Amino acid sequence: MVPKNKRTKQLLQQLTLLWHQSVLTSHDFLTPTDIVAIKPEVTQGLSQIETLILAIKDHKPQAFMGIAENKIEMLFIAPSFQGKGLGKALLNLAETNYQVQFVDVNEQNKSAVAFYHKMGFQIMNRSPLDDASRPFPILHLTNKTSF
């Protein structure tokens, strides 16, 4: 876990770049203009999220997960590490150590939706817009058995 006072400008830049690379492979519904508009929100979110967990290999972040209360707010993995169990390991850590029960995912991100379903999450609700009122539907998922 990276405490807020240890989130240097350099680290935030590295994680924002990781986010950008990940989004290019997983969020094909976003235009380059969308990505540019969202990027500052990501950097700000990384600096302020309650719990920030990194997966580091060769002294470099390869994935990160942000948690607030009992919800995963962000989970992004470097393209070269996608599909290799890192997301599963981070999600298991979140559920075990942080009692995570919720996650929101872009409906158009089919691989993420499939991943969370495989990991036992179910759709609770759907919003037609994202948190910034952009036209990217959000699925609200839970791993709770009753909701």
UniProtKB/TrEMBL annotation:
Gene Ontology MF terms: acyltransferase activity, transferring groups other than amino-acyl groups
Keywords: Acyltransferase, Transferase
Domain annotation N-acetyltransferase: ranges: 1-143
InterPro entries, A to Z: Acyl_CoA_acyltransferase, GNAT_dom
Highest taxon in the source lineage: Bacteria
Pfam family, one: Acetyltransf_10
The name this protein goes by in its record: N-acetyltransferase domain-containing protein
